[in-house]
């Protein structure tokens, strides 16, 4: 089982190194991202392992399939960067649905606290022996209303942190559920009532640009928006306009819709051409981290463990409990979905 890993950093290689040779696994790490131009590197491999900003579109899948690659193993939860329809019937796709939801939830609160209590400003000031407090006034989180969009694993972990702060939690999800101390409400009510809005839903056709000019208009003046989910949930131009109009009080962004050419790399010596991101970063009330919310030791260990288990399950012809398939995700009449969500190989596949 030869697996080509794309877009790897030192921390990936360290997390996966213990699995080299396990049950015949041979791991090749590439720093480059997977895209139509680099897909050639996967020739001769049985599977590829990719991350959030690798491009796994129809053209890449066509090439991989031609090389005999049989598995795309995502070492992340989201799969919006994979053309699942193009992969169907040709290459199986597996993901890591959960590793440490706490890693992302805690980073979400870290961003909020840093932004609202101006920790990033104070840190720079005191290093220069500037002990002035001017401009550092924040606000109490206690008693404020936080609107949580998407109450899956990360949303729930974030809600429990917010409850610890004594915040009122409003939530919206397309799947109805009950969470103690949380009031589920329509999206418009979250927009209207929230002091802080936190995004924890996946990026789908329904959620692209969920935060846009129209939804921003419905929000409270001074609303704080935090996004640790996927960049394209927010229309960045509209976010920027909302900040310039003083409607948005602060934005905390771990993800950005055009992040794939920038995030995870050092561009400090370069001229960055993305004017929207550059303008956002100049704003005193915007904090950007580069898709870092997942980056804890526990999460990296969990990602490596599940990814290797997914790969071994596939090549040892075991049940693929973490397979993603556009038929299942599309909520249509997929037989596998009807039988048991996520269980077993899809019966509609023309297995080789
Ligand atoms: P999850 O599947 O457990 O939860 C997602 C929730 O969103 C579900 O409850 C689902 O019903 C809900 N949802 C789906 N469509 C929706 C819609 N249109 N409106 C409202 N809710 C909707 O996923 P999770 O593990 O909680 O992860 C959430 C997201 O976080 C992932 O999709 C991924 O994009 C992102 N993520 C980011 C990082 C990071 O490092 N920044 C790391 C991991 C995951």
Structure characterization notes:
With 352 residues, the chain is of the alpha/beta class. The protein folds into two domains: 2-99 and 296-331, NAD(P)-binding Rossmann-like Domain (Rossmann fold), CATH 3.40.50.720; 101-288, Rossmann fold, CATH 3.40.50. Helices cover 33% and strands 14% of the residues. The chain has helices at 10-16, 58-67, 84-87, 101-116, 119-127, 153-164, 187-193, 213-218, 236-244, 275-282, 297-315, 326-329, 335-339; strands at 2-5, 26-29, 47-50, 71-74, 92-94, 145-149, 168-172, 182-184, 196-199, 223-227, 248-253, 286-288. The strands form two sheets. The protein has a seven-stranded parallel β-sheet, sandwiched between helices. A five-stranded parallel β-sheet has the order 2-1-3-4-5, covered by helices on one side. Helix 1 (10-16) crosses helix 11 and helix 4 (101-116) crosses helix 6. The longest helix is centred in the last third of the chain and has 19 residues, at 297-315. The radius of gyration is 21 Å and the shape is globular. The two termini are 17 Å apart. Residues 337-343 have low confidence and may be disordered. The structure holds nicotinamide-adenine-dinucleotide.
How many DSSP H or I helices? 13
**From the helix content, strand content and strand pairing, which structural class follows?**
alpha/beta
- Give every kind of bound small molecule, once each: nicotinamide-adenine-dinucleotide
> Architecture of the largest domain, CATH level 2?
3-Layer(aba) Sandwich
Largest sheet: 7 strands, parallel
Number of strands: 12
Spell out the CATH superfamily of the largest domain.
Answer: NAD(P)-binding Rossmann-like Domain
Order of helices and strands: EHEEHEHEHHEHEEHEHEHEHEHHH
> What's the overall average pLDDT, rounded?
93
Report Rg: 21 Å
């Amino acid at each position: 089982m030869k697996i080509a890993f794309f877009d790897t950093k030192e921390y990936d290689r360290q997390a996966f190194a213990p699995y080299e040779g396990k049950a015949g696994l041979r791991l090749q790490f590439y720093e480059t991202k997977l895209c139509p131009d680099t897909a050639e590197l996967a020739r001769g491999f049985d599977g590829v392992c990719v991350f959030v900003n690798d491009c796994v579109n129809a053209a890449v899948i066509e090439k991989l399939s031609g090389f005999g690659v049989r598995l795309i193993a995502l070492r992340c939860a989201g799969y919006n960067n994979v053309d699942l329809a193009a992969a169907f019937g040709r290459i199986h796709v597996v993901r890591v649905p959960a590793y440490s939801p706490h890693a992302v939830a805690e980073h979400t609160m870290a961003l909020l606290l840093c932004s609202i209590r101006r920790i990033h400003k104070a840190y720079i000031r005191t290093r220069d022996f500037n002990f002035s407090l001017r401009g550092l006034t924040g606000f109490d989180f206690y008693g404020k209303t936080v609107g949580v969009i998407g109450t899956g694993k990360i949303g729930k972990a974030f809600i429990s942190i917010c409850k610890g702060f004594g915040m009122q939690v409003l939530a919206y999800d397309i799947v109805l559920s009950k969470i103690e101390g949380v009031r589920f409400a329509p999206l418009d009510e979250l927009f209207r009532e929230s002091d802080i809005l936190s995004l924890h839903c996946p990026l789908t056709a329904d959620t692209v640009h969920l935060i846009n000019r129209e939804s921003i208009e419905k929000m409270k003046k001074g609303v704080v928006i935090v996004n640790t989910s996927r960049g394209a949930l927010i229309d960045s131009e509209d976010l920027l306009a909302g900040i310039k109009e003083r409607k948005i009080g602060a934005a905390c962004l771990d993800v950005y819709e055009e992040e794939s050419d920038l995030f995870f790399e050092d561009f400090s010596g370069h001229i960055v051409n993305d004017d929207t991101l550059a303008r956002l970063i100049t704003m005193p009330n915007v904090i950007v981290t580069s898709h870092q919310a997942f980056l804890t030791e526990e999460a990296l260990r969990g990602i490596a463990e599940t990814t290797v288990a997914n790969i071994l399950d596939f090549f040892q012809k075991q049940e693929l409990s973490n397979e993603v398939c556009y038929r299942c995700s599309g909520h249509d009449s997929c037989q596998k979905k009807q039988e048991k969500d996520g269980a077993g190989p899809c019966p509609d596949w023309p297995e080789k």
